[in-house]
Amino acid sequence: MNLGSVPNQAAFEPLDEVVRQARTDYGASASSVLVIHNDRIVYEQYDGFHHHKGGAVPVTKSSMFNIYSTRKTYISCAMAMAALDNGVPISTPVAEVLSDYPGEDLGRSL
To answer: How far is residue 54's CA from residue 32's CA, in Å, rounded to a whole number?
Structure first.
């Protein structure tokens, strides 16, 4: 990574500390921080290991992980956009808006 002229790296220590504490609080084995400013990566930090078992490999910028349950994040974002952009009441059940998905996948009772 070539940071060139960037803010003082020590300035990111408070951010690193918050992320390290969150990792501990949530019981995660690893964490990372990536700061992008003016379309450039100005800071990145990786800390921890791939898992909690003995022999775990340290996390680096090329580490890869399985990511589970991201659908909730995307559906929540889509519902927020529907509410803001199209006036859909935020209390509207997701299954009423996203009709292309099986109702049971969106929390609708059978």
So the answer is: 21
